[in-house]
């Protein structure tokens, strides 16, 4: 009880001394999926002499919009988690101040998305169709190999996807279909998916953990889902027991790249600290950590991958791609057209 | 007017300034800021009339169903003495305060494929959530009506059906109206349930505001929709308030021990049937959660509960800390809600100026995302740079809890027989003494109920909290949401385990509140 009271007092007093912390702490504004270990967090604090505070505000889309709301007078110093597919929204909203980290030469050019260095790439992952190996084995059906397969009658009622209006993997998969079938054909493809009873959810959580049959503990009945190339590795890692083979597989030809970027927020109270944090996010220590903390791939060359990734995550050789300026110019229109085609 | 009366009025007037300032600073100011920014900025204003219509009719249907299905249970709990009665009263509140994400997910796992989306799951979830309101508000009121009313009616030859029509329902009318208004409001502004169980094709005003603001970043459309929603909620609150005042009649207040009877003969079957049906309807989704929290890999066990003491990538703190945070936040929020709501109730019950009552109800009708955004842009400068302060969590929770405190306390204050007050005054008691010796003791029982509800609502709140909670100070519902957002059996299991922890805390809060109130029975 005493402890509770003490906590209550701390809570009530918490609004007080927020005045002069700014020089000694750096605040990272990010989405709910951001995660690093305490060990790496402490390493940053030791090296920089700054306390790291993490402010999470919803999923990637929500966090970005909340940051846009405060552009120029931000809630923190660094924003992490805008992806290549929503990048234009952040740049149009004048969210970031330019900063060019020294370690950029350690990165592949394909990840550098802004000539003016307002954003720095931190990790990448591929959004791909995943399938439930067990389901296809027991039903004696061959798993899908292409996007087009899913319009065939034997895949009726088997696919679950995320709504691109509310989910970043949903956006990526919609863009994958645009890249595959072109401006002329992608809507027809979705019409055919709709006839084949595609199921649409608002977010990845429901699609993967509730609807998809292949996720551990799920009672879902759909054996094909839009998720990540690293999801099979996550299934093995979180299985709670040893697995020789991942229970799920990936359709290689369906993948679309997602690069996650960070940037120094315009008007950051601690701009100096913000630059240190962006530098740290490109350091080998941080980069080596991202596979197991966020289930994505590092962008820095030569960073060793953990065993579960080497064995079970699929490294996509040739993901589907669209030019970034085409995405920026057309994304919101495509989302509206997708909604009209699939949901209305 | 005598001097005592004048000074009481003056004191009340001064006291009213406190809730007024609280609501003004933490509700009207932030919401006004974001609405102003939205209305003056760019954006589309493309309103789909279907959204408003769907909001209204699903809320109406949810309310009707909740009343019909909740009244039998309210009757059983109000009139009968049976083993475990206190437990039933506490259990029934658990669904109400569970985070919507948890319940919606539980429904998804229970419903057969193909039936998970659409209007029926939404209605079922709304009934599941809101039955507690009917059972507690109507039941609590019912339990204080003296059985002599029915006895008199029976003596005059009224059968059971006619007693229900001519005695019970009219007497219960204020409580029914209060409960119906709350259920309607909750269903009208329901967010998580509609978002998850409605699927992408169905939206209410609340989910459409969220979609426009948090997804498309179209603040203009969100602001216009918010005004429409506030207007609707204002109208509902106004009508409910009027209903409430119109149906005030004489009541006979009785101690619980005189009211409760043991069921006899055929009644036993009916009572057992109602309790059984409630147990299945309310228990199944909860049992599914408990089952999931215990299904560790390789058989049932406490693995997931033990994991709550270990670091996890899903959270910035060890999960059990979320339970401590929740308790601390909820305690502060309950304190704020009781002070603010108590003053509002006292003022409203004694005067005809009910604007404060209706003003206090409005936070229920404001979109959580817009209020959260409002906090972000309104409190961004010293001395009020509260954007990332943990204090905003209990403040946001209190905003949601205050309307309940006001409803519960106001209807208790109004139900006090005016003749008691008159008698005391005739005997020479001052107004202050009348409040102290008549109103206060009679209200204390309701005070316990209000405290329990406020605590439980604060513990389970998700919508208002999630937009202001700091990630290094997560509450239990926020932590559950984080776990649900990550893959794998471990995270799903820990989410279920935390849900069970939350259910237990809620039940403890309600049981304690009942005991607190129960200790004063007979006054």
Instruction: Give me the number of helical elements of chain A.
Output: 12
Strand order of the largest sheet of chain B: 1-2
- Full CATH superfamily name of the largest domain in chain A: Periplasmic binding protein-like II
Overall, the morphology of chain B is: globular
Topology-level CATH name of the largest domain in chain B: MetI-like fold
Give unreliable regions of chain A as ranges: 1-19
Secondary-structure arrangement, i.e. CATH architecture of the largest domain in chain B = Orthogonal Bundle
Write the CATH fold name of the largest domain in chain A.
D-Maltodextrin-Binding Protein, domain 2
Number of H/I helices of chain B: 23
Helix content of chain B: over 70%
- What proportion of the residues of chain A form beta strands (DSSP E)? 15-25%
Topology of chain B as a string of helices (H) and strands (E):
HHHHHHHHHHHHHEEHHHHHHHHHH
Number of domains of chain B: 2
The largest pleated sheet of chain B is described as: 2 strands, antiparallel
Which CATH class of the largest domain in chain B applies here? Mainly Alpha
How far do the termini of chain B sit from each other? 30 Å
Alpha-carbon distance between the two ends of chain A: 54 Å
């Amino acid at each position: 009880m005493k402890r509770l009271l003490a906590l209550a007092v701390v809570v009530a007093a918490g609004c007080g001394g927020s005045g002069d912390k700014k020089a000694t702490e750096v605040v990272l504004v990010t989405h709910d999926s951001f995660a690093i270990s305490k060990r790496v967090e402490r390493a940053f604090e030791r090296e920089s002499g700054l306390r790291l505070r993490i402010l999470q505000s919803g999923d990637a889309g929500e966090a970005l919009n909340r940051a846009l709301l405060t552009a120029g007078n931000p809630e923190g110093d660094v924003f992490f988690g805008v992806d290549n597919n929503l990048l234009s929204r952040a740049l149009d909203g004048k969210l970031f101040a330019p900063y060019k980290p020294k370690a950029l030469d350690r990165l592949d050019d394909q990840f550098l998305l802004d000539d003016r260095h307002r954003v720095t790439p931190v990790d990448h992952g591929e959004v791909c169709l995943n399938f439930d190996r067990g389901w296809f084995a027991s039903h004696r059906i061959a798993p899908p190999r292409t996007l087009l397969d899913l319009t065939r009658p034997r895949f009726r009622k088997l696919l679950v996807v995320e709504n691109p209006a509310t989910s970043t993997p949903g956006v990526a998969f919609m863009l994958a279909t645009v890249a595959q079938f072109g401006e002329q054909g992608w809507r027809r493809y979705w019409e055919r998916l709709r006839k084949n009873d595609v199921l649409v959810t608002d977010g990845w959580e429901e699609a993967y953990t509730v609807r998809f049959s292949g996720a551990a503990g799920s009672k879902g009945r759909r054996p094909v889902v839009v998720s990540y190339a690293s999801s099979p590795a996550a299934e093995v890692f979180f299985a709670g027991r040893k697995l020789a083979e991942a229970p799920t597989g990936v359709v290689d030809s369906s993948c679309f790249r997602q690069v996650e970027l960070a940037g120094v927020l315009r008007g950051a109270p601690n701009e100096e600290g913000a630059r240190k944090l962006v530098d740290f996010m490109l350091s080998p220590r941080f980069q080596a950590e991202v596979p197991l903390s966020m289930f994505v791939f590092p962008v820095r060359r030569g960073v060793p991958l953990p065993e579960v990734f080497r064995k079970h995550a699929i490294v996509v050789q040739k993901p589907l791609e669209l030019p970034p300026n085409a995405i920026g110019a057309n994304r919101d229109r495509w989302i509206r057209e997708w909604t009209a085609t699939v949901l209305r | 007017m005598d001097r005592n009366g004048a000074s009481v009025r003056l004191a009340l007037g001064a006291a009213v300034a406190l809730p007024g300032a609280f609501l003004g600073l933490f509700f009207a100011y932030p919401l006004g800021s974001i609405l102003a920014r939205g209305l003056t900025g760019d954006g589309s204003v493309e309103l789909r009339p279907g959204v408003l219509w769907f909001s209204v009719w699903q809320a109406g249907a949810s309310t009707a169903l909740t009343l019909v299905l909740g009244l039998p249970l309210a009757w059983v709990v109000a009139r009968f003495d049976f083993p475990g009665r206190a437990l039933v009263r506490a259990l029934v509140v658990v669904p109400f305060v569970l985070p919507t994400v948890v319940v919606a997910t539980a429904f998804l796992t229970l419903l057969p494929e193909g039936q998970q989306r659409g209007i029926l799951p939404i209605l079922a979830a709304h009934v599941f959530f809101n039955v507690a309101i009917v059972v507690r508000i109507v039941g609590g009121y019912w339990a204080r009506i003296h059985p002599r009313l029915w006895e008199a009616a029976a003596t005059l030859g009224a059968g059971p059906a006619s007693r229900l029509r001519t005695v019970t329902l009219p007497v219960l009318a204020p409580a029914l109206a209060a409960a119906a208004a709350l259920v309607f409001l909750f269903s009208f502004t329901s967010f998580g349930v509609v978002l998850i169980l409605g699927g992408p094709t169905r939206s209410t005003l609340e989910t459409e505001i969220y979609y426009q603001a948090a997804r498309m970043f179209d603040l203009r459309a969100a602001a216009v929709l918010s005004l429409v929603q506030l207007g609707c909620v204002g109208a509902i609150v106004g009508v409910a308030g009027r209903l409430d005042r119109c149906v005030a009649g004489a009541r006979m207040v009785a101690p619980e021990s005189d009211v409760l009877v043991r069921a006899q003969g055929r009644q036993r079957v009916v009572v057992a049937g109602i309790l059984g049906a409630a147990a299945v309807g309310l228990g199944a989704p909860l049992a599914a959660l408990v089952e999931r929290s215990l299904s560790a890999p390789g058989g049932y066990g406490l693995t997931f509960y033990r994991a709550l003491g270990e670091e996890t990538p899903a959270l910035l703190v060890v999960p059990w800390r979320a339970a401590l945070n929740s308790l601390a936040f909820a305690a502060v929020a309950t304190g704020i809600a009781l002070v603010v709501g108590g003053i509002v109730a006292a003022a409203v019950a004694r005067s005809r100026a009910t604007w404060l009552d209706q003003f206090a109800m409005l936070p229920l009708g404001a979109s959580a995302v817009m209020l959260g955004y409002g906090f972000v842009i309104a409190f961004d400068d010293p001395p009020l740079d509260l954007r990332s302060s943990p204090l905003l969590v209990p403040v946001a929770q209190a905003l949601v809890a205050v309307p309940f405190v006001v409803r519960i306390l106001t209807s208790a204050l109004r139900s006090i027989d005016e003749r008691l007050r008159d008698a005391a005054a005739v005997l020479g008691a001052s107004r202050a003494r009348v409040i102290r010796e008549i109103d206060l003791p009679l209200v204390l029982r309701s005070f316990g109920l209000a405290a329990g509800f406020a605590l439980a609502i604060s513990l389970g709140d998700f919508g208002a909290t999630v937009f202001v909670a700091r990630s290094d100070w997560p509450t239990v519902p926020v932590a559950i949401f984080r776990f649900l957002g990550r893959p794998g059996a471990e995270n799903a299991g820990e989410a279920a385990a935390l849900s069970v922890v939350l259910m237990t805390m809620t039940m403890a809060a309600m049981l304690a509140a009942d005991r607190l109130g129960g200790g004063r029975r007979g006054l």
